[in-house]
Amino acid sequence: MKKRINVILGCFGFVAILACSGNEATKVKKENSAQQPSAVESGTMLDYKTEGPKGVGTISSFEHKPFDAQLANRGVELFVSKCAMCHSFDRTLVGPSLDAVIKRRTPEWIMNMMLDPATMLEKDADAKALSKEYASPMISLGLKQEEARAILEYLRERNSTTK
Fold this sequence. Notes:
Elements: H1 2-20, H2 24-35, H3 39-42, H4 69-83, H5 101-104, H6 107-115, H7 117-123, H8 125-133, H9 145-162
Helix pairs in contact: 2-4, 4-9, 6-7, 6-9, 7-8
């Protein structure tokens, strides 16, 4: 129990550092675009997985739309402030790596996990299995549906440029 509390407190401390460090989202976005060619430019934007579990929560269907760069830009800002302390793309941190997550999970499942992790961890078999692998369960991020959608679009862009 103490270990779990220490991990959670460490995550909150990391968030505080990120919040005080200036415009980190812009810096990360510039680094990412400098390291990798844009998937939109090269025409290799991945679409979301369509078959598989949808998770448990308010998102039961998802409209597949063309890539929205503006939404993805908003998503990177939210990812840096809400997700990056626990998730990365190239390694496992507190939570699982998000590399190729849009190939492994449906957008409904991902959004339900972002919007209501407590319900997912209680009722979804895949979320339960994931929680057994990691020291700390995912906490509620207090996201609105449109914020979760923006992060999802960033995950789509990032997953398209990393492979």
